[in-house]
Amino acid sequence: MPRALTGLLAGLAFGASGAVFQTITRNRWPAGHDRDQTPGRRPAVVAGISFGFGTASATTTLGLLGGLF
Fold first, then answer.
1. Of 2, 7, 39, 41, which one has the greatest count of Cβ atoms within 10 A?
2. Mind giving me the DSSP string for 19-45?
3. CB within 8 A of 69, min separation 6: which ones?
4. What is the pTM of this model?
5. pLDDT digits over 7-34, tens only?
């Protein structure tokens, strides 16, 4: 129980410090469109991994193709 409680408190502290840091630097929370991602990339990669195409080259290719459509 002490380890679980310590882990929970550490997670809360990390979350709070991240929120304070984002507020101080006036940095918006990251969003998908900020990183130039299209809505099709993520589902294409997840579907590929689900069907057994989990290699780095396969997920990169699926992300590229999902971004085009």
1. 41
2. HHHHHHHTPPPP-GGGGT--TTHHHHH
3. 40
4. 0.45
5. 999 999 999 998 888 788 776 655 555 5
Tokens representing 57?
């080259």
The one-letter code for the residue type at 8 is L
> Contact at 8 Å (CB) between 62 and 45?
yes
63: tokens are 């992300």
CA distance 9 to 57: 39
- Residue 54, SS3 per DSSP: coil
CA pair distance 64, 45, nearest whole angstrom: 9
